[in-house]
Amino acid sequence: MASNVNPTVRRRRLGQELRRLRELKGMTAEEVAERLLVSQSKISRLENGRRSISQRDVRDLCGVYEVDDQRIVDSLMEMARDSRQQGWWHTFGDIPYSVYIGLETDAESLRVYEPQLVTGLLQTRAYAEALVQGALPETSTAEIEKRVQVRMRRQERITAEGNPLRLWVVLDEAALRRVVGSKLVMREQLEHLIEMSQLPHVTVQVLPFEVGAHPGLNGQYAILEFTDAADSSVVYLEGVTSDLYLEKAQDVQKYAVMYEHLRAQSLNVEQSRQFIAERAKDYAE
């Protein structure tokens, strides 16, 4: 569940504020880098929230931007201090997608399109174990268990009292027909999917094969939205060795429109439950 201080979100907000100060000063990232004798890539990473920001970095940047209001400087310094704290996921060691977990932990709503598998927040433990084993065949048993534990912990956002994550998932029919683990694992997974879809804040729709070509053929993506107006929406694209985060308004809008088309082409909620239930029967043998 979300903590009072989320280091990922703090870094992101701080980066946005530092970018705003740079733009008010009329300077490019390259010019700032030259003044501070650092690489331009460092300035970019600080501004996009993908790198920890030290209080020294904040002090130096405020000096370059000639920030005279000490209250602003103090506020940015406090955000830098908070951004270096550790989120719950750090107790599991090095997690490849820790930035995403930090965003998901603080998100108000999440829209996901999954073309190949059941989305992580709705996976059973048995399905998750079989999935990680199949996707990462050279991974040790300990690493597989760690990844599964993290996935199970992430699911607490769905059942959190008071402020659960609002989740909307569009699943391609392929995700229901691809046997992960065994028929028993699949039957339990689909039954769990039906159960979770009945929560008031969880919506699951199935995109059937008969739709043909559709806007989601380029692959999986997720759209995260936040309560605080200072936090812009993010599109998350998962990769094998690195992930991509899109935050420009025009990029987010394009993916949001694509998602609306996917929802419109999918079976409605009740039809989707019936469809999933029929597929679950296929694994009852």
Q: TL;DR?
A:
This protein is of the alpha/beta class and 285 residues long.
Task: Give the SSE map.
Elements: H1 7-25, H2 29-36, H3 40-47, H4 55-64, H5 70-83, H6 98-106, E1 109-114, H7 125-135, H8 141-154, H9 156-159, E2 166-172, H10 173-177, H11 183-197, E3 202-207, E4 221-225, E5 234-237, E6 244-246, H12 249-265, H13 269-282
Parallel strand pairs: 1-2, 2-3
Antiparallel strand pairs: 1-4, 4-5, 5-6
Molecular structure report:
A hairpin with a 6-residue loop joins β5 and β6. Strands 3-2-1-4-5-6 form a six-stranded mixed beta sheet, sandwiched between helices. It has 285 residues and is an alpha/beta fold. The protein is 52% helix and 11% strand. The model has no long low-confidence stretch (mean pLDDT 87). InterPro entries: Cro/C1-type_HTH (IPR001387), DUF5753 (IPR043917), Lambda_DNA-bd_dom_sf (IPR010982). It comes from Streptomyces albidocamelliae. Pfam families: DUF5753, HTH_31.
